[in-house]
């Protein structure tokens, strides 16, 4: 792991919602701490309703984690473009978050501990 990133099991049960829909709940979330940034909760893909997510062409690069693919959230009431990211093939030091999903903190998406 890089020296300024810590990954640990997130305590408790976590939920993500968008547009009135529950996208997922999990007790197996990971919390990633990076420097002085706010913690990021990563959800196991198996605990997310992937039918609400459409993969986009957007790819971003982090020198400490690798390339992140992005997804838009699509539901009956809205589309939130590129609101989700995932490190499908992270650098070896970040293998714990491989395939997990994280959600940008935007108004239409709520990540919360239950």
UniProtKB/TrEMBL annotation:
Give the Pfam families listed for this entry: NTP_transf_9
Domain annotation DUF427: ranges = 16-105
- PANTHER family in the cross-refs: BLR5716 PROTEIN, DUF427 DOMAIN PROTEIN (AFU_ORTHOLOGUE AFUA_3G02220)
User: What is this protein identified as?
Assistant: DUF427 domain-containing protein
Q: Which organism is it from?
A: Ruegeria haliotis
């Amino acid at each position: 792991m890089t020296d300024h990133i810590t990954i640990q099991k997130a305590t408790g049960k976590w939920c993500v919602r968008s547009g009135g829909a529950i996208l997922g709940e999990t007790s197996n979330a990971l919390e990633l701490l990076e420097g002085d940034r706010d913690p990021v909760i990563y959800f196991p893909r198996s605990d997310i309703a992937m039918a609400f997510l459409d993969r986009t062409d957007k790819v971003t690069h982090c020198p400490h984690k690798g390339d992140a693919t992005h997804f838009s959230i699509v539901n009956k009431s809205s589309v939130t473009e590129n609101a989700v990211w995932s490190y499908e093939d992270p650098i070896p030091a970040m293998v714990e978050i491989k395939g997990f999903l994280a959600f940008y903190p935007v108004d239409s998406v709520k990540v919360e501990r239950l």
